[in-house]
Design goal:
The complex is a heterodimer. By secondary structure, chain A is α/β, with parallel strands linked by helices. Helix content of chain A is 40%, strand content 23%. In chain A, strands 4-3-2-1-5-6-7 form a seven-stranded mixed sheet, with helices on both faces. A six-stranded mixed sheet of chain A has the order 9-11-10-8-12-13. By secondary structure, chain B is an alpha+beta fold. In chain B, strand 4 and strand 5 form a beta hairpin. Chain B is built from four helices and eight strands; from the N terminus they run E-H-E-E-H-E-E-H-E-E-H-E. In chain B, strands 1, 2, 3, 4, 5, 6, 7 and 8 form an eight-stranded antiparallel sheet that branches. Classes of the chains: A alpha/beta, B alpha+beta. Chains A and B meet through helix 12, strand 10 and strand 11 of A and strand 5, strand 7 and strand 8 of B. Bound molecules: NADP nicotinamide-adenine-dinucleotide phosphate (NAP). The site of NADP nicotinamide-adenine-dinucleotide phosphate has 24 residues of chain A, from helix 1 and strand 2.
Chain lengths: 337, 168
Amino acid sequence: MKEARVMIVGFGVVGEGVAEVLDSKKKQLEKLGVKLSLVAVCEKDGCIVDEKGIGVSELLKLKKAGELQKHSGWKKKMRSVDAIREVDCDIVVEVTPTNVESGEPGLTHIATALDSKKHVVTSNKGPLALKFSELVEKAEKNNVELKYEATVCGGMPVFNMVENALASNEIKSIKGILNGTTNFILSRMHETGVTFEVALKEAKEMGIAEEKPDYDVKGIDAAAKITILANALMGRKLAYKDVKRVGIEEIIPEGIALAKKSGFAIKLIGEITGDKASVSPQLIPLGHPLNVGGTLNALMLETDLAKEVIVIGRGAGKIETASAIISDVLEIVKSRK
Amino acid sequence: MKAEALVHLKDAPGTLLEALAPISAHGGNVYSISHFRERIKGGAVPTLIAFEVKDLEQLEVIKKGFLKQGVEVTEITLEGRKIVKRKTLAVVLVGHVMATDAKNTIDRLDEYGAFVSSFDLSIAKTELPSAALMHIVIEENKYEGLLKLLDKIAEEKKLVVIREVEGS
Ligand SMILES: NC(=O)c1ccc[n+]([C@@H]2O[C@H](COP(=O)([O-])OP(=O)(O)OC[C@H]3O[C@@H](n4cnc5c(N)ncnc54)[C@H](OP(=O)(O)O)[C@@H]3O)[C@@H](O)[C@H]2O)c1
């Protein structure tokens, strides 16, 4: 049995999902020969630390009640960076909020973990979109792994698929729907003829869009993902700010209707072809594999050997994202001697 | 000599005859027509017309005839050799399409050698943003330049350009 001690930094939606999966898939993981124990959980105002292992069901109960500080291992005012440095663990799961301007607090968390010779698994796009090569180099220098499957298209296998199943393929171009919220809005506009504002309101009511939807509707989230894809899969030194970006706020029902009449749907497409990288609304033929509805994501990779490879799936969600994080954790544990 | 033209016909009566007119008008001799219904795109059926011409010169005259007639041709070959390779691109413009002089937009595309084969406008109210869908026929080697030109026009006129996904 291979054992690994895991620490979760940022105990929000995804952090909780990871804890849930660690608990619910315990037996299945043990069948795979892996035993994972949760030794620390960090929030903004303190950390829970128990190097013998934190009981997940009690943890989740306290979290639901908003009473993490009642846990016996609660260390008030212990900062995440200090916990990352000091707590004896193998893998740091960094799942704090994305910030594409400064990358913080994730950037400091990830750098500190790598420098402390801890493996890192993250769903946080900011640090990777801003400092991809620096972080990868840091991981190499410290001889630890940095894995980020969950940063792009949540539950869909992308990086691990290319690394394993498509090993030896060269990725020539990438295009896809990388944001579920905007896809939901555009799909509603296409199906029902409503305006952007109405579809956005629906999305908010359903908890699909956030109160401040700029990250999604201005294409910022998709541009961060395009940056990570370009760096990770195509070896490009692409900077986030160099991704040409057009959002979906100006799309009107008349445009959607004209497109529909001619056999197209309008979708927000992230694309890397030649030396161009962009996020912009494009016309997708109705029968095209990228024409997926609802909150689905779809990614089309053009490769030299396998030709076009298409992945369709859920780009976000608590458990879907946790699935990608756990798969990264397993990859790390399995590859250890 | 054997010539072939790949044309894209709207699924409506009379479009085939219109496409054949430039060939017969300039002495070409049509001997086969194949429709590729399974490859229908943007409501148009790709159709391969094979015909006999005397020489390249006659084919050039027929080629111009297609353009005049507004027939959407994406490929012409003579004895299997490509004379023209064009592609059609659907583009939706959103913004004040009319108020920013739609004719000027089309003329500028035309000047670059891009042929706007259809232009469909939809306006809810004159003071509000409107949308237009156009099909643009362009020689393949000028495709990248066309995208740049569209971006430039869009920036100047504050329009959103929504182009057809590449390789569709
Ligand atoms: N949700 C998804 O479906 C999804 C999918 C793919 C990727 N992601 C990415 O995954 C990350 C987490 O997403 P989420 O939905 O779980 O967000 P979330 O619910 O906002 O959770 C983030 C948590 O991190 C905490 N936090 C903030 N600063 C911290 C610090 N310095 N130290 C420790 N904890 C800190 C936040 O606390 P406060 O609430 O007190 O600020 C919050 O509890 C984001 O980067 C997101 O972009 C999410």
